[in-house]
Amino acid sequence: MRARVAVLAAVLIALSICLPIVAAFQLAWHLAVSTQQDRLTLFNDHAIRRASLTFSTAKDTLKSMASTGFTPCSDEHIAKMQLVNANNQYIAGIGYIDREGFLRCTALGRTTITIKHSPSPHVLDDGVSVIRRMMPRVTGSEPRIVLYRDNYDVLIDPKQLVDISLDEGTQLAVTLEKVGVLAERGNPNARFVQSLISDPRAGTSKDYVYAAARRGEWTAIAIQNIDQIDPEYTRLKEALIPIGALISLLFIGASIWIIRWCNSLKADLILAVWRKEFTIHYQPLIDIRNGACVGAEALVRWPRRGGGFVGPDTFIPLAEQSSMIFSITDQVIASIVREMAPTLSAERSLHISINLSAADVSTGRVLNVLERELDGTGIRSGQIWLEATERGFVKIDDARDVIARARQHGYSIAMDDFGTGYSSLQYLESLPLDALKIDKSFVHSIGKATANSSVTPHIIEMARTLNLACIAEGVETDQQLKYLAEQGVQFAQGWLFSKPLPATEFMAFFARRKAEFGLGAEATDGGSQLWPRAASLATP
Ligand code: C2E
Ligand code: CA
Ligand code: CA
User: Which of 26, 202, 208, 280 is most buried as measured by Cβ atoms within 10 A of its Cβ?
Assistant: First the structure.
């Protein structure tokens, strides 16, 4: 157990230190990356807006030119094309194509060279063909994107599509579905761009942080060097690591609390209750008048790992603070039934005394447990005595009711530790008891000049007045026994006769005692029930 707690302690403390700090680093990195990705997504959105506006302007131009009624390549026609070209910032050129596909004139005038558009593999839904790259031979300028339909074509400068403001080092690619990459900035890696087109996503690689955005048929991809996020990462680390350290401290505090708790008696007890680790020792109860063994008090024992027992005085008060005490009472009853049923069935004069907790008495729950557990075992209810301390009678009305019900079931009831509490004669009279157990502190005072010693005869007298049987516990000497016998006390238990014994040893003790002393003085009626004989017992 201790070794396990030590391992748990080491693991908990290590995790308490590492987890929050690692989490702070992770969170700082994650936030820095996502901030950068948000920025890249913003660029992507700008680029897509720009590209789609450029394309729709070009398409509108194709449409409006197709509906003009000019004589092809007439001066008016060319002037019109010049006007359209000059007034439209997105368009880098416009031309007229005849039926055979030859370029006849442009905004610059009639063509002198033969230019023919071969059919484009990229035809958009609205019938517009797209050539991704063409060197305009008329102007001899940089490569242009060509859009054409029917008798007109329109040139677009690819730079136009990505002409947005970017951060230093940002790479950008804009692609159109069915056509492919139309424009780029910063020379992004073609293979990487392709992989992002087929699966648009945001992410990081060893060298880059990237984001892709798809809007309709447009996809834009923005890529930035990973070291671009360093300043933000550093800023976030500086903010988050102290918080992580603080959480670490809290976790360490919580771990210490958990470890302490795991090391506590309460935690051990919870585990013991759950594992049903308790055993019972039986302390013989002797009929003083003839020396016979008439029964035993069941005393719960919690075996310690490595030998010995934890005393009930240590753990019963702790168990009584929670519902654990109920489980312990239940385990005690179950053990008694398991170990003693054959002996109790064979020896009707024998009884077992069970210590009840205050909660057992005030709730009466134990009566249902007993009924269930005893059913069909051969044990008679008269063979069960119940011991309740004064603490059990705090809620006097409930207790009176439970005791009355217990006696109706046939159990005998003794008041335990009598004399240690505050019971008045009047108070005792109102309880339907069968016996008083004189606490061992009074028995030990016999023959000594202590304050208790003068009380002992009064306690015995009180039992007699109330017509209750009297049981003395903790009898250790012949002198004590002699005194108790003279005083008319009927029963005694204590080390003078025997210490509490495991079940088999108790049975052997009982057999020896029976052979030597026979059965209890009251055993002739074949029962061990105190009530209704208590009254007759009380008069010597
Ligand atoms: P208790 O009911 O007063 O039980 C008598 C105590 O005196 C027992 O202590 C017993 O071992 C001890 N004893 C018996 N003979 C002698 C003797 O000659 N000299 C001395 N000095 N002591 C003697 P134990 O077993 O440690 O039990 C302590 C208390 O724990 C019990 O006091 C009882 O109140 C409680 N307890 C024991 N078993 C149970 C149980 O199953 N349920 C509940 N609720 N309480 C229990
Ligand atoms: Ca007792
Ligand atoms: Ca006692």
Answer: 280
Cα–Cα distance between 348 and 299 in angstroms, integer?
A: 21
- Quote the percentage of the chain above a pLDDT of 70: 95
% of the chain residues with pLDDT over 90: 72
Mean pLDDT over 373-392 rounds to 92
Spell out the domains of the chain, with CATH numbers in brackets: 269-537 (3.20.20.450)
pLDDT band at residue 528 under the 50/70/90 scheme: low
Task: Tell me what the mean pLDDT of segment 315-344 comes to.
Answer: 96
Structure tokens at 287: 């009929």
Residue 253: helix, strand or coil by DSSP? Answer: helix
Tokens representing 144 are: 């242009």
Collapse the DSSP code of 450 into the 3-class scheme (helix H, G, I; strand E, B; otherwise coil) and give the result. Answer: coil
At 529 the pLDDT is 60
Lowest mean pLDDT among 151-155, 501-505, 535-539: 535-539
Calculate how far, in angstroms, residue 353's C-alpha sits from the geometric centre of ligand 2. 8
Q: What is the number of the ligand closest to the CA of 299?
A: 1
CB of 501 shorter than 6 A to ligand 1: no
Q: How confident is the model at residue 526 (pLDDT cuts 50, 70, 90)?
A: very low
Handedness of CA 499, 504, 510, 512 (dihedral sign): negative
What average pLDDT does the chain have? Answer: 90
Give, as one character, the DSSP assignment of residue 53.
Answer: H
Question: Which residue do the tokens 């004064």 mark?
Answer: 390
Cβ atoms within 10 Å, residue 231: 10
- Extended beta strands in 135-251, E state: 144-149, 152-156, 171-176, 180-185, 203-204, 208-215, 218-225
- How far apart are the CA of 387 and the centre of ligand 2, in A? 6
| Residue pair 54/144 in contact by the 8 Å Cβ criterion | no
Task: Flag whether pLDDT at 15 surpasses 50.
Answer: yes
Task: Choose one of 473, 477, 499 to mutate for the ligand 1 pocket test, by most ligand atoms within 8 angstroms of C-beta.
Answer: 473
Rg (CA), the chain: 50
Which atom of ligand 1 is closest in space to residue 476's alpha carbon?
18
